[in-house]
Amino acid sequence: MLVDGDKITRVDLFASKSRRGDRVFFGFAKAAAYFAFSLVFLVFIFLSWRSASTFKEQGFSFVTGSTWDQATNTFQIMPMLVGSLVLVVLALIVAVPSSIAVAYFIEFMAPARIARWATNVVDLLAALPSIVIALWGAFVFTPVAASWGRLLNQYFGSIPFFKNEVDNYYRSPFIGGWILAIMMIPIITSVSREVISRVDKELVNASYALGATRFSAMRRVILPTARGGILGGILLGIGRGLGETIAILYTINLIFHVNIVRILENRGGAVAPMIASYYGEAESKAISALLAAGVVLFGATLIVNMFATYIVQRSEKKMAS
Question: What is the pTM of this model?
Fold first, then answer.
């Protein structure tokens, strides 16, 4: 009985230590979560406080106008906002089908060894610093993409999107969109692969047994089941693209001209590289305007990321049920 009593005592002691360890761990995790939330909130408050004068002086024209002039203290960012959206749309045209294809290849086509290798490569691409991609894009990829733009103009110049009247194909939104796509592909691929891996394999095999091809199984079984999570990954990629700075700064021109259609011409811009480029020579009012542009970009990125997180979580619950 003493032995049994000793055993019970040791078990109770171990359980007590385990519960104490869980409480400490959960306490640290909760503190880290509150710290991260507080840090984001304080950054937003700081930016809003420092940029309040710009919103007061410029009003709604800060977002809708197209003039940036320190001499007259006129600061408006519409061309940069439009440029950011154009770059993201161009990047999505390349990144979304590429990412889904890579995710499908890793999960359903590649042997296990190649799948592990491909997953590591995708994770490595996601961890590459922006400056590395910026230098590669500026000195290696830009001449290649410029030649693509010249060919598009030569054969499809009658289409407004591929018209170029300045005969300069460098530093255009077309090139910036490709660079942004390369940076978005690892994020979208990682999320898509994770969601696709949770699709019931028996359901996919049943579709094959009924005569479905790989493409039809992908289109009718996998994508409908995983579309919520894939959409969340796409939104996370959009958030990444909206905030990208150095890689875009090295590959496009910052010109305050709204350019939606002429993607092969070297005019346009984006909010994040504009802030980085103009901050060094900005005076007090211009600094406030740049911080105001940061508030607009911060809010847009935060909303996109929160929406993406919600969609991914809802998709995981739906697939688990």
Answer: 0.83
Same domain, 93 and 42: no
> Among residues 58, 80, 106, which one ends one of the domains?
58
pLDDT in the model for residue 314? 73
Shared domain for 36 and 76, answered yes or no, is no
**Domain range enclosing 209:** 61-320
> 279 to each of 275, 285, 290, 293, how far by Cα in Å?
6, 11, 7, 12
Distances (CA, A) of 251 to 12, 17, 53, 242: 64, 57, 32, 15
Q: State pLDDT tens for residues 271-283.
A: 889 988 888 887 8
Digit-coded pLDDT (tens) for 133-190: 999 999 999 999 999 999 998 888 888 888 888 888 898 999 999 999 999 999 899 8
- Looking at the 3D structure of the chain, how many domains does it have? 2
Which string of DSSP letters, residue by residue, matches 3-46?
HHHHHHHHHHHHHHHHHHHHHHHHHHHHHHHHHHHHHHHHHHHH
- Asked if 199 and 227 touch (Cβ cutoff 8 Å), the reply is no
Q: What is the DSSP letter of 50?
A: H
Q: What gap in Å lies between CA 299 and CA 303, rounded to an integer? A: 6
Using CA atoms, how far residue 316 sits from 57, 196, 199, in Å, is 46, 11, 10
Residues 69 and 167 in one domain: yes
The maximal CA–CA distance of the chain, rounded, in angstroms, is: 95
pLDDT at 16: 59
Question: Does residue 226 contact residue 196 with C-beta atoms inside 8 Å?
Answer: yes
Taken in order 200, 107, 244, 257, is the CA torsion positive or negative? Answer: negative
Tens digit of pLDDT for each residue in 61-89? 888 888 888 888 888 889 998 899 899 99
Q: To the nearest 10°, the Cα dihedral for 11, 12, 14, 17?
A: 170
